[in-house]
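LAB NOTEBOOK - FOLDING QUEUE
OPERATOR: T.R.
BATCH SIZE: 2
PURPOSE: Compare the predicted C-alpha cell outputs for two unrelated chains run back to back under identical settings.
PRIORITY: normal
REVIEWER: second-year student, initials M.K.

ITEM 1
FIELD SEQUENCE / FIELD STRUCTURE:
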Amino acid sequence: MKALTNINVCSIPEAVAAASEAAAAGRVFAFSGGGTDLLQQIKDGTDKADIIINLRTVRDAREVSVLTTETLIGGLITLSDLASHAALSDPWAVLREAAASVGTPQIRNVATLAGNVTQRPWCWYYRNGFNCFKAGGNQCFSVNGENQQHAIFGGGPSFIVHPSDLAPALVALNATFEVADSEGTRRIAAADFFVLPSQNPSRENALDATELLIGVRIPAPGAGVVSTYLKVTDREAWTHAEVSAAVVLNLDGGIIRTASVVLGGVAPIPWRLTDVETFLRGQSLSAAVAGQAGELATANAQPLAKNGHKLPMTSAVVERALMRLAPA
C-alpha cells in the first residue's frame, strides 16, 4: 500500500479548508469518517488519494435535533447511533431501519451517514481494476458481461446500482442535504443530489470536488405519517441490496393521502416510483392495492441479460413494504 498523509481535523471548517489546500497543491485527497470502504479502495487502487482528511476527530455534525418544522441530522453520526436514536420516532422508522440494515454491527459502529450516502459503486468491474466509466474509462463492461446485480432502471451508459441504504430513505423523506466547502455551505434536495450516468457517467452525486456532506434536514412529518424500509439481499450480512424499498405514507383513516416509494439496488440513483405513488393516492391500503402497486412497480423496468430476477423481487418488495404499513 502506498504512503499516505493523514490530516486530523477538529471541525468541519478545518476539514474543508484542508481539502481546499490539498486540491490547490494538486494533491488527491479523501475525507474519511468511518473509512470502512475508503481504505480498501486505496489498497485496491480504485481510489487514488494520497491525503486522508480524518473526520473521526471532528466532534460536531454528529447530533440529531428535532425542531418544530424539521429534524436536523449531522452527517458524521454513526449508523449505529442513527438506528437507535430515541428522538427518531415512528415516522422516521424508514431511516432507522435503513441504517440498521447496513453491513455488520462492527461496520455500523464506525460508518457514517455521509459516508454511506456518498460511497462509490460496488460493481465488480470497477472494483477489480477495469477501465470503466467509474474508473475514468469510456465503457461499461457489465452491458455485455456479468450484470446479475446491475441496474434495471435508469441505466446507460453505466449500469451500476447505487449502493447506499440510507439514500432511498432520505429521498422518500424529502430530505435536503447540506454540504460545505471553504467558501461556505449550500443545500441540495435529496432528489437532486444523485446523478444519473446519462448526466455524468463518472459521478454518482452533485458534490463539487472539495465539498463535504455535513448533514441532512428532514421536514417535520404530519399526523398519520408511517414509514418502513425493506431490503432483500443474497446473503444474511455484510452485503448490499439486491432490491430495497423505502416507503413513506401519510394515512388518514386508512386512506393514503400521499405516498413516497423509492427503490434501492436497482438503479444508479435512488429510484422513485412516481407512477406507484400516483396510483396509491386516495386508495385504502389493502392486500389487493399493495399487490397492484407491486405489479406497477416494474412497468418501466429494462433488465439486462442476466438480472431479470430483479423484476419479481421488486414487485414483491414493494408489496410487502406496503403491507407492513397497513392498518391492523
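ITEM 2
FIELD SEQUENCE / FIELD STRUCTURE:
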Amino acid sequence: MRRRLLQSLVPMVVVLAIFAAVPLANYIATSTSRTLFLSRSNDADWFATMAESPLQSGDIASLRELAVRYHQLYSTPVFVVDVDRRVIATSRSGVDVKEPDLEKALNSTLAGRLPTEPPALWPWRSGEMVVARPVVNNGRVLGAAVLRVPTESAREKVQNGLLLLLGGLLISIGAVVVGIVRPVTRWVLRPLNDLDNATHQVTRGALDTRVSTDGRAPELRRLGDSFNSMALSLHQARQREREFVADASHQLRTPLTSARIHIEGLSRLSPTARFALSDIDRLGRIVQRLSRLAGSDRPGDAEGNEEPLDLAQAVKERLVGWKAVYAADDLELIIGEMVPGGVASELEVDDILDVLLDNASKYGAPPVEVSVLRDGTEVVLSVRDHGLGLGSRDLKKVGERFWRSAHHREMPGTGLGLAIVRSEAARVGGRVVARPPIGGGLVIEVRVPLIDDYDV
C-alpha cells in the first residue's frame, strides 16, 4: 500500500514542480533575449546618430569603415539604409532588405513606430535577432541603422540556465519526496502497519496483542476496535478450550488408571487382553498430550525432549494383538524382517499400524505381511497384501481425504484412514508411498526420518 500511495503522491509533486518550472524557464529565455536586445539597441542608436550626417551629405566612407570595424569586433553585421531602403553602408555584401525579418523591422522603423520586444531565445530555435533604429533629423526619418545580432551564445546561455533549472527541479522533487512525501506516507500508514504487525502476532499465537486507537481517524479507530474485539474473542475462546482440555484430561486420568488395573490382571491369560491393555496405554498417552496442549504439564515434559522410538519394537508389540484379531477372522498375518531404527517419539505407530492392517484385511487379500527396514536415512514401515491392488491413476490419489477406489466404494469406510496416516507421517517429516509389488497386491510404505544417534 505504501508503494501505491507513493505512486499517487509523487506524480502530483512532479506535476506541481513542472507548473512552477515553466514560468521560470520562460523568464530565463525572455530575460536573456531582452538583455541582448537592449545592449544591441544602444549600439544601433549610436550608429543611427553617426549615420545622420553621412545620409545628408552623401559622404559614407567613414560610416562604412565604422560598420566594418564593429562587425570585426563584435561579429555582428551592420548596415544603413536610406528612406527608400537602399543600402548606403554595410559591413558585408549581399544584404537583401526583402528578407521577411528585415522587411518587417524596416517597415516598423521607417514608419517611426517603437520597436517591439523580440521573442524568447529558446535553444531549439535558430536565427539572428534584428535590431533597427531610425536615423532622424528634426523629426524627419532619413533612414535606418540595422544590426543582425547572432544569438548562438545567448541561446547557449539559456540552455545552461534550463539545465540548471532542470537539475534544481529534480533535486527539489527528491527533497520533497524524501522530506515530506515519505514521512507523510509513513504517518498515514502507521496505523495500518501497527494493525498488520498485530495481526502477525496473533497468527503466531500471541492472542493478548492489542492495537492502540487513540488519536486516530474515526475509520481507523473503528477498524482498531474491531480488531481488538476479534483478538479478545479469540483469546477467550482459546482460554475456554484450554480449560476444557485440562478438565477433560484430568477427569479421564482416574477411569483410565482404574481400567488399566483391571485389565492387567487379565493380560497374563489372554493376548487379546494385552491388546486391550496397549489401547489403554495409548489412551493414557493421548490424555498426556491433551494435558500438554492445555499447558498443565511442565515445559520439560514436551514430546520433543523424549527419547527416540524404536519403530521395529513398537510395531512388534502392536502386532501381538493384531495377530489374535487376524487369527479370529482366519486371516494370515506374516511378520517380516524387523530392523531396529530410531524415529521421533511422537510418531503414533499404533494408530498408523491399525489403519494399515484394517485396510489390508478389508480391501486386500491374505496373506498380509508387515516389515520394518532401513533405506538410507529413512526407516520404512511396510504393509503388503495380495489383493487386486490399485491402478497407476489410483496410486497417485492414495492418502487424499475422502478418496476411495472405485472397487471399494460399496464397502464400509470413510476414506480418511490413509489421510490420517499421511498426516501422522508428515508431522515427523515423513511420507507415505503406495506401489504395486511384484506378484500383485498393494504395498503401503510409511517412510520416516531415521534418527542417526539412536543406540540400537
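REVIEWER COMMENT (ITEM 2): The longest strand covers residues 140-149.
FOLLOW-UP: none requested
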